[in-house]
Specification:
alpha/beta, TIM Barrel, Immunoglobulin-like, 6-stranded parallel beta sheet, 5-stranded mixed beta sheet, 9 helices, 27% helix, globular, disordered N terminus
Length: 316
């Protein structure tokens, strides 16, 4: 997410947000500033949640609401941690325990199995599981969009088997490595019958209109605007029709989106590296010939209507 997006959102008249899922990675590891959260910042965030009436709930509670198509309370927050970095065990976990906040840790199994020094051990995972849930984030943390169906399946099967072996547990929840996915990847994962699958898109969880196999999580790393994220609402009734695959020439030619709300007459469309552009909406249809160049191999396209937002990811 770019500074342009942050500025745009800061100037927007956001209402009280929907429910939220946040994701952390490292704690007090200044070697990696873009994925690090200081424990001082974590304390500030947790104190803010406690002081302002937010209820930190187990992630599965939000999933249950979504699967039942029930509204997620506006003050509900779920906390997740990705990858299994050792700094969660040494630096982050004591603060979660101090506030008695539930959490879900999604582990990339290979790093633990091969005893990489920056990652938790199986023994430490068993200790962590006394205070929160441990779920699945693939075996090798590969780029699923660039892997074949067979390679994805091999990765999934290997990781799940090791979790069963070491933790005697079959994960119910899954997070896409790097937040990268497309329709093909989603189809490969269908037979695993997870209760829910999560991305890493900034957003919120309404509940009644949320997709349990594509749930947004806002990353609280670096200098993320935590209090702003809490004001986000999920834009319901959105279908992204174009583009559906990453553009080979790195030019987003046309953005086509359908909105269920036919009364909307204008919206803002976001493209990575290009910020937001106001476009017309005709009878619930956005058809914008953008012709915008992108620089990265993973881009986000978003739609904003008034105070509500929805993002999707395309990966090379």
């Amino acid at each position: 997410m770019t500074k342009v997006l942050f500025l745009f959102l800061l100037l927007s008249p956001y209402l009280f947000g929907d429910g939220h899922i946040f994701v952390y990675h490292r704690f007090d590891d200044t070697r990696y500033p873009t994925t690090n959260t200081s424990t001082a910042e974590l304390e500030r965030e947790f104190f803010y949640l406690k002081k302002n009436g937010y209820k930190v709930v187990p992630l599965i509670d939000i999933v249950t609401k979504v699967k039942a198509k029930e509204k997620v309370p506006n003050n509900w927050v779920a906390l997740t941690i990705d990858d299994g970095f050792k700094t969660f065990y040494t630096n982050g976990l004591p603060i979660f325990k101090k506030y008695n906040y539930p959490f879900t840790l999604f582990i990339a199994v290979e790093y633990t199995e091969k005893k990489y020094k920056d990652y938790v051990s199986w023994k430490q995972l068993k200790e962590i599981a006394k205070y929160g849930d441990v779920e699945f984030h693939s075996y090798g943390h590969g780029h699923f969009g660039q892997m074949s169906d067979a390679e994805i399946k091999t990765d999934m099967d290997k990781g799940l088997a090791l979790m069963k072996k070491h933790l005697n547990y079959e994960p119910r929840l899954f997070v896409y490595p790097y937040g990268e996915y497309d329709a093909r990847v989603e189809k490969v994962l269908e037979p695993y019958n997870f209760k829910a699958v999560f991305n890493q898109n900034i957003g919120a969880i309404h509940g009644e209109c949320s997709d349990e196999y594509d749930l947004d999580r806002s990353a609280l790393v670096g200098k993320a605007p935590f209090q702003l994220y809490l004001k986000f609402q999920e834009l319901c009734g959105v279908t992204f029709q174009q583009p559906t695959v990453f553009p080979k020439d790195k030019i987003v030619k046309t953005v086509e989106v359908t909105l269920d709300d036919k009364t909307v007459t204008s919206a803002d469309v976001f493209i990575t590296n290009n910020g937001w552009t106001k476009v017309n909406v005709n009878n619930g249809k956005i058809l914008w010939h953008a012709n915008k160049k992108v620089k990265l191999n993973r881009i986000k396209i978003g739609v904003k209507v008034k105070s509500k937002i929805k993002l999707m990811v395309l990966s090379k």
